[in-house]
Design brief:
Blueprint (H helix, E strand, L loop, with lengths): L10 H12 L4 H8 L3 H11 L9 H16 L3 H4 L1 H12 L4 H11 L10 H10 L4 H9 L10 H5 L2
Length: 158
């Protein structure tokens, strides 16, 4: 059985969706034409058409989808909020582990949603760009000070 790779709708596919919707074609018909799942087309159309008088715009849908992808998935919380970043970096300079930082930040800022983070997110931030000069310094501040994280299989001893 072949594993399907999830891929986002392209601008070309969104233009086809828009033109077929203007011709009053069904979502099932559009899905067959594009070779996509009917639920994918339904989800895309329902996201933009909520009331009977509205219409689907491929350009707007594609622009917002790309913007959402860039903002949600590629920026980590530490890079986004300077105050959080400074707290974490100061904690690392004080020889705190990421676990200690995430625990202390909850005590210091109990009602601030920006100032909450898991230890794993701190590790991900540090190891994300190991070639960056700042991240090399951060890696050396960690207890182990290793360049790379070991894979899960090697940690378990398999």
């Amino acid at each position: 059985m072949e594993l399907k790779k999830h891929r986002r709708l392209s601008h070309k596919e969104r233009v086809i969706i828009q033109s077929l919707l203007e011709e009053n074609k069904s979502k099932a018909f559009i899905a067959i034409k594009l070779g996509r799942s009917r639920s994918t087309i339904t989800r895309e159309v329902n996201r933009w058409i909520t009331k009977p008088g509205e219409y689907y715009s491929a350009d707007i849908a594609d622009y917002i989808a790309k913007d959402d992808y860039l903002n949600k998935r590629n920026k980590d919380k530490i890079s986004t909020y300077r105050r959080l970043c400074m707290y974490i970096y100061k904690g690392l300079l004080k020889d705190w582990s990421p676990e200690q930082i995430s625990g202390r930040i909850k005590d210091d800022y109990p009602n601030d949603p920006v100032m909450t983070i898991s230890h794993e997110a701190i590790y991900q931030h540090i190891y994300n760009n190991p070639q960056a000069r700042m991240n090399l310094k951060l890696i050396k501040l960690l207890a182990r000070g290793t360049q790379r994280r070991r894979s899960r299989k090697k940690r378990k001893g398999n």
